[in-house]
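In the current project phase, work has continued on tokenised descriptions of protein folds. One protein thus recorded appears below exactly as we store it.

——
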Amino acid sequence: MSKRFVCVIFAVMFLALFGCAGQENSSSDAQSGDQQTIDDNHIASDDQSLKDVVADGDAAAGNTSKDQCQSEGAWITSKVNSAGNIGYTISIGVDHADRPHLAYNDEDGFSHVVHTYYNGSTWISDKPWGELLTYNPSIAIDSLDRVHIAALAEMSGGYYNMLLHAFLEGGIWRYRFISMGYAIDTPYLIAGIDKTVFALIRSNTFQFNAVLEASRFNGRGSWSPEVDYPVDVYGTVNALSGVVDSQNDPYFVFTMGGLVVPRPYRYAFKQDGAWRDGVVKPYLLGVCDSAMAILSDDTPILAYSNSFGSLILSFRNDKWQIVGWLDTGFAAIIDIKADACDNLHLVYSSGEIVKTAYYYATNRTGNWQTTLINDSMTNITDAALAVDNQGRPHIAVIDPTLQTIEYAYFAPDER
């Protein structure tokens, strides 16, 4: 189930039951004294600037000094794809040379997962599994700079699925099998340390009980299940996201049950070799989307959206505490990451039901500041964000109605 489907269903149900949540404001006071401001004067479109960013990344590859975190600059946008049908999901990663890598669906005929990256002058694309019917990809780049993609392969009319894994090593795609199950949904891939990659997987048993699985890939060999986490009897799992800390232990969050019935918003993590879990919010209505980041001191950060905007929370001393709020509008699609300076970077879509604009937000100055990047989209169904070695955010959004993938990155003023 894609983010688009979950958020649209939630939006329709919420509006039908409770009425409109209110119009979005271009500028509003955030809770706890945070000020949200809009800046739409620093947007440009320049392919040459993209080449400059990649060239600078080649020179700075491997450097992660906190002095490199960028500040003032402009957003540069470009179109990735030139033709063809595309799906509803997008995933982005940045390699050690600051080159963006995307994974998405090509919907011409059958669905095929496409990997595309910017090589310094143009976008290069290939299909890791060729013409095999694959969809809903997630991408991660490990400590050896290998590109990993996990995707679903449909079996038995979609009711039984395989979760496949491909990683690019020495210019060759190598293949692994992660899991097989009933109604497996979109995977969530996370790069750990020391070549490790984690996959968070949600599926149902034949009794329709929701199950979460965390699996680990240690760089070679096969995938090893970390935990099978039973979630709820006759339940569903939504808003799944996660991070990995410096000890190579994963955290993940998820909601249980329906979208219009208040259910617990839960978290689980591994610590000292044992799995622990708890509740972020005991009764939370309609989480549309969620995303996680990790700070340099291993503090997990959680952002989630519902009908009233998006909350940002930190997990310290076994408690989730609110550290920010953004007026992201109704049922926003979001993603969040932290840079080496522990600044947070967030992308979100905007619109009542159909998402026609996307924004970038950061707390770099101490208060949350928001920038409109593009408000001329037609139907944004997914948005993803990654941060490079120099603390610069890279964003990808997908609009299947326009048949467009848009890539945006932050170019500092000194360039």
Summary: The radius of gyration is 20 Å.
